[in-house]
């Protein structure tokens, strides 16, 4: 009898260990315009996430004056390991390891994000308790989803010299271009330290401010309807041609606008 129990213990224990090691199954919910995927860990917080998501979707609709073109998926990853594994697969980068500030990404078909419950432990620069900034982060990625659904490169993999526009649009439309960032950009321009090329906007500590502010300037000068028309382009020259301007003239106008507005 003891021998049988020992054998049974040897068989069952490794089996339980294997079961425990298996990745958690995704739970799925259908919502208006999107599907939500999450794990047991986030079951209790799901309702709160949905409030952020719905408000974000509503703000994107209002900004662009139209609905999302097609349904998309939202994945709330239980930890950074899960998020990194997904990004490695999506971006075909087997050795990719995300920076601590990276908590979400959006393309035409889906939004992936690290569980906000894990931000304090597995991220930097983000505080889930800051409701305004959390809302803006989610809205930022939803802008990418909307943009991707109109762009000739839905996942932005075939976008040339347009990081400033892709990220600037999401920064501006999500409300992340706040007074602090605008003030920083105005001071930088006044101190003759601003980039002299659009290709350099999405670099350095002020990249969100630089990129968001040039998109804001385009809207102020050409109107929101024209700004929305630019979402389909995947090359810098296409945007400049559509605006009937040169890069130098666009940058000079941007500098004058923000020095004057300060």
Overview of the structural elements:
This protein has 262 residues and is an alpha/beta fold. The chain has 2 domains: 27-150, Neutral Protease, domain 2; 163-261, no CATH class. 54% of the residues lie in helices and 9% in strands. The protein contains 11 helices and 5 strands; from the N terminus they run H-E-E-H-E-H-E-E-H-H-H-H-H-H-H-H. The protein has helices at residues 2-21, 46-64, 80-91, 119-122, 131-150, 163-173, 179-190, 207-222, 224-229, 236-242, 247-261; strands at 27-31, 34-38, 72-77, 104-106, 110-114. The protein has a 5-stranded mixed β-sheet. A hairpin with a 3-residue loop joins strand 4 (104-106) and strand 5 (110-114). Helix 5 (131-150) crosses helix 6, helix 7 (179-190) packs across helix 11 and helix 8 crosses helix 11 (247-261). The protein is globular and about 55 Å long.
Using DSSP, what is the number of strands? 5
How many helices? 11
Mean pLDDT: 92
What would you give as the CATH superfamily of the largest domain?
Neutral Protease Domain 2
Characteristic key phrases:
Neutral Protease, domain 2, disordered N terminus, single chain, five-stranded mixed β-sheet, alpha/beta, 262 residues, 11 helices, 2 domains
């Amino acid at each position: 009898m003891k021998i049988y129990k020992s054998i049974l213990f040897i068989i069952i224990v490794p089996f339980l260990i294997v079961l425990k090691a298996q990745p958690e199954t995704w739970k799925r919910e259908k919502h208006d315009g999107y599907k939500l995927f999450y794990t047991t860990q986030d079951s209790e917080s799901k309702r709160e996430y949905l409030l952020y998501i719905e408000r974000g979707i509503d703000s994107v609709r209002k900004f662009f004056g139209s609905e999302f073109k097609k349904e998309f998926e939202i994945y709330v990853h239980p930890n950074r390991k899960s998020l990194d594994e997904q990004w490695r697969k999506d971006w075909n980068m087997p050795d990719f390891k995300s920076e601590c500030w990276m908590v979400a990404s959006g393309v035409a078909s889906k939004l992936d994000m690290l569980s906000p419950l894990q931000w304090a432990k597995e991220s930097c620069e983000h505080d889930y308790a800051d409701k305004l900034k959390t809302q803006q982060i989610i809205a930022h990625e939803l802008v990418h989803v909307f943009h991707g659904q109109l762009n000739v490169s839905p996942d932005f993999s075939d976008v040339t010299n347009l990081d400033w526009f892709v990220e600037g649009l999401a920064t501006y439309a999500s409300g992340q271009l706040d007074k602090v960032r605008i003030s920083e950009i105005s001071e930088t321009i006044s101190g003759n330290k601003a980039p002299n090329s659009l290709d350099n906007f999405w670099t350095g500590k002020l990249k969100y401010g630089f990129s968001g502010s040039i998109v804001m300037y385009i809207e102020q000068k050409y109107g929101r309807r024209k700004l929305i028309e630019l979402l389909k382009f995947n090359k810098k020259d296409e945007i400049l041609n559509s605006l009937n301007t040169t890069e130098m003239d666009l940058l000079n106008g941007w500098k004058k606008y923000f020095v004057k507005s300060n």
